[in-house]
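ARCHIVE CARD
CATEGORY: sequence design from structure
SOURCE FIELD: tokenized fold
FIELD CONTENT:
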């Protein structure tokens, strides 16, 4: 399974309109892929609608990429003030495919831009760390490496509250179970956004 993260940035007062247009775009008869999640950023980079879809083949993913790139109004965008990006990803090989589920009210999307050659050691570090840190990593929805652009990974987490997130992170850091040993050394730059699920998101 391959994945796409589409991020639409817009003025704050246009978020509802942009979200509804994105929902229509990914639900239309012409759309390929499977809708998995849709979120609105709340902390971090604001006024972003993030949509995640899964694809069975690269041809299917490329069909959607081409559909957006050649459309007069990709994702239903009508305003020149709305911008969008599309990123293609593959899951870390030891993780299961992403499925709709209920994780809680708060989602975190973390992106790490890695040093050259950093993908392989990062995957190895995460594979070793997941089991011992299960109380924390049971909240992991996905970790994926980018198939386009600079070397980077994106991991998505779900929590019932920000307090739950901080309690788990504090405990696992104190016990030396997190972060994955050998992982942070590969990071060149990092960003994080706390997001809320849209009403039409299968991941809630």
């Amino acid at each position: 399974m391959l994945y796409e993260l589409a991020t639409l940035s817009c003025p704050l007062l246009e978020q509802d309109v942009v979200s509804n247009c994105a929902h229509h775009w990914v639900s239309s008869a012409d759309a390929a892929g499977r809708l998995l999640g849709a979120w609105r950023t709340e902390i971090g980079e604001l006024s972003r609608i993030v949509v995640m879809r899964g694809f069975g083949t690269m041809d299917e993913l490329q069909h959607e990429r081409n559909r957006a790139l050649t459309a007069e109004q990709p994702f239903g965008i009508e305003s020149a003030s709305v911008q969008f990006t599309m990123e293609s990803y593959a899951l870390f090989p030891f993780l299961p495919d992403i499925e709709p589920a209920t994780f809680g009210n708060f989602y975190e999307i973390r992106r790490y831009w890695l040093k050259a050659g950093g993908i392989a050691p990062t995957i190895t570090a995460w594979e070793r760390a997941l089991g011992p840190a299960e109380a924390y990593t049971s909240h992991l929805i996905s970790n994926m490496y980018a198939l386009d652009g600079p070397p980077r990974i994106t991991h998505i987490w779900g929590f019932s509250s920000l307090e739950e997130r901080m309690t788990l992170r504090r405990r696992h850091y104190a016990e030396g179970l997190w972060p994955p040993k050998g992982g942070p050394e590969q990071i060149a730059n990092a960003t994080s956004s706390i997001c809320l699920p849209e009403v039409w998101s299968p991941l809630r």
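CARD ANNOTATION: Residues 106-197 form a domain with the Alpha-Beta Plaits fold (CATH 3.30.70.100). The radius of gyration is 17 Å.
SHELF: design records, drawer C
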